[in-house]
Design a protein that fits this description.
10 helices; Elongation Factor Tu (Ef-tu), domain 3; elongated; 309 residues; 2 domains; alpha/beta; six-stranded antiparallel beta sheet; Rossmann fold
């Protein structure tokens, strides 16, 4: 799969394409329906399948005061699209200048001139252009004059609820990784580099991989049953999300501490995925290290029992 950092980076215009447009935050079940649509369309038209998304997420540019955090980094989206068999992903830089383009100028001046789509695939709530003026009917009308067909994918429903990135984000804030996984079609995960810690966990016989989480959505602070993909296996783990208040009573930074069960891996400097499975309890401060160790041992046993259900 080719990854292109913006339409301007294409060495030459495409002679044709089947194009999916969207933010694809999380590539959840609803997004996956769009990807199936673009793959089927590309095969039908005999043209490359292309996904165009925006980096950063438009909300981060248009509403910076919201401190919006995406579900995953864009690298994860690229990896997932590659697994699906998409031929090209374009990460279009989202800037105030792009946001100021009218819907018509965006389609005619950027998409049609460069990608020459035979078909455009979007979700039914897709909006684009200055002030989000462009909607499905706008695309349909532009398609009739610019020579492309429009396929608007209906929403995907799970348990009577529409699948969306905002619903997944709320599930994570509520400490419901099971619901997030159901809507994502895979476990929610956090990816970060393991930092060198103080070694307290290893000294207590409970080594942890410690990571500082920035720029992506984090689950509700607390302790979770989790797992770590490693050398083709999913290693059972327990993960604390929070500030480790027993040792850092004045800290305000959010960190992630993962203990991988029955392993003694040295992971400092390694880029690690931690997948969240189920919420165990809230984070709390203990009066002594001994009390903390007892609780962690209980958390580990709870994780073992969860894995054997």
């Amino acid at each position: 799969m080719k990854t292109i950092r913006g339409l301007n980076a294409l060495p030459q215009p495409l002679s044709g394409s089947c194009l999916a447009l969207g933010n694809f935050d999380g590539l959840h079940l609803g997004h996956q329906a769009l990807i199936r649509g673009v793959l089927e369309g590309a095969k039908r038209w005999g043209v490359p399948s292309v996904v165009l998304t925006f980096d950063p997420h438009p909300v981060q540019v248009l509403r910076p005061e919201l401190e919006f955090k995406p579900l995953f980094k864009r690298d994860d989206l690229v990896h997932q699209l590659s697994k699906w068999g998409v031929e090209m992903v374009i990460l279009e830089p989202f800037t105030p200048q792009l946001a100021a383009l009218s819907a018509e100028d965006f389609v005619k001046g950027r998409l049609v001139q460069v990608l020459h789509p035979k078909e455009v695939v979007v979700g039914q709530d897709f909006a684009f252009g200055k002030g989000r003026e462009g909607r499905i009917e706008t695309l349909r009308l532009l398609g009739s004059t610019e020579g492309f067909e429009l396929f608007a994918v209906p929403p995907v429903m799970v348990d009577g609820q529409r699948v969306s990135s905002s619903v997944i984000r709320e599930a994570l804030r509520m400490g419901q990784p099971e619901k997030a996984a159901l809507l994502l079609g895979r476990p929610f995960k956090v990816t970060a580099k393991v930092e060198s810690g103080a070694g307290r966990g290893r000294g207590l016989g409970i080594p942890t991989a410690n990571m500082t989480i920035r720029d992506v959505q984090i689950p509700r602070p607390g302790v979770y049953v989790s797992q770590v993909p490693w050398e083709g296996k999913s290693l059972p783990a327990v993960t604390n999300v929070g500030i480790a208040p027993t040792f850092n009573s004045k800290s305000t930074g959010i960190r992630l501490e993962t203990h991988i069960l029955d392993q003694n891996l040295h992971l400092s400097g390694v880029q690690l995925d931690v997948e969240f499975i189920s919420y165990l309890r809230e984070e709390r401060r203990f009066d002594s290290v001994q009390e903390l160790v007892v609780q962690i041992r209980q958390d580990i046993e709870a994780a073992r029992k969860f894995r054997t259900k």
